[in-house]
Amino acid sequence: MIEDNILEELNRKIKDIHDDILEGKISLLDLELVPMFNQIKDSLNIDNLDKHSLIYKNTCELLNQKFDELKKLLSSLDTQEKFAKYLNTNPTDVEIYELFDGCWNKIFTLETLSINFLEISKEKLSKLIKKSYSIEHLQKKDEGGVFILEVPKLKFSEKMTEFFNSIQSKLPCSFDEIFEGDSDQIKIFEKFVYLLHLLQLGKIKYQKETNTLYK
Amino acid sequence: MNAISILMHFLSNKYGSYQIGAPEKEILQALKITGKNKAYYFQNLLINLSKYIEPLGLEVRYNPIDSHWFLSFDSELSDIINANPFEGKPRLAATLFSVLVCCLQNSGIGNIQDIKKLRNKKNVIEDLKELEKLGYIEILKDSSQIELTPLIGYQLNIEQLFIRMALKLKNLG
Fold first, then answer.
1. Cβ of A111 under 8 Å from any chain B Cβ?
2. Which of B107, B165, B167, B171 to substitute to test the interface with A, most A CBs within 10 Å?
3. How far apart are CA A100 and CA A102, in angstroms?
């Protein structure tokens, strides 16, 4: 209901503007159209889409007319003679100075919001994450009980190095070659984990395109 | 880091004495926006940023001299914080006006003789030197021509000035 009232008001307003322009009461250059577009935007909903489209079209026409008026105005000035004519009327310095009224902008700069700072921070963070971590071997304490999980006899790094030494002679080779002949899933998984860790440490490298592992 | 923060950085950054903000191409490259709709995305980004900064009294503006987008305080706030660099110096403002008329009709370069004629004064060199000190123009080597720097395009709403000028001429009949 409120939206309908706004639509009626907008329709009336557009008609009044047209009448006032024809009567020479107002110039479109003096008319602020932004509030009208805001009203259209705020009152738009699914039910009144049809009516809104028409009002939006009419308001856009006003905007186009305003642009045309501005173009005409600017093109009518676009010669040095016109400016010279004005300057030949010997306007005082103060008169010209007053022309600048309301035309000045205060620039906003904020050098501290630097993209370089953000880039440096990002690099620092990625370096922190890159740092390899050490795997500490578990120490078995004799508590006198029976445990399902057994602490491995060799440290992870020792096992990994042993694996690395065993495949060194094969490199470069295809990824699948490493697992050739292995039927035990646990063993395959274990080798895969060593491979991942060796890749992370950069001891071996992998080329995706050719599925090749190399040093 | 999101698109708005990168845009905010580009539009508020100062390059040297005369340049602020960034051109559309540079911003699009930084944001890795490509394709046929890139201009649309760019406008959308500017509109969204405008909404964010409006309550702070800031707006996104365009400098027609060097095609840079930049940030400035809105006109109301600019008036309050006194953005007019010629306060109490109408003589300099009048010379700047002649400079603008000459330069904007000649790709940013103007003859000092033409400025003298427009200004209707024999000696404008002192004014031009002062405008050069303020960073608005550069007097070229042979001292017969001057060139506008982009600075005036940031500080002065040239379009608004010409509209005011046009209305003035209209009233003069």
1. yes
2. B165
3. 6
User: Predicted ipTM?
Assistant: 0.84
Q: Split chain B (173 residues) into runs of 10 and give each run's mean pLDDT.
A: 82 85 91 84 89 90 90 85 83 91 81 86 88 92 86 88 77 65
The structural architecture, per CATH, of the domain B90-172 is Orthogonal Bundle (1.10)
> A212 with A206: CB under 8 angstroms?
yes
For A100, the closest of B93, B101, B118 (CB atoms) is: B93
- Tell me the domain boundaries of chain B: 3-79, 90-172
In this structure, are residues A110 and B12 in contact, taking their beta carbons and an 8 Å threshold?
yes
Do B3-79 and B90-172 agree at the fold level?
yes
Q: Which of B132, B104, B107, B129 is nearest to B118 (CA)?
A: B104
Task: Return the CATH number of the domain spanning residue range B3-79.
Answer: 1.10.10
Q: What is the chain B residue with the closest CA to A90?
A: B120
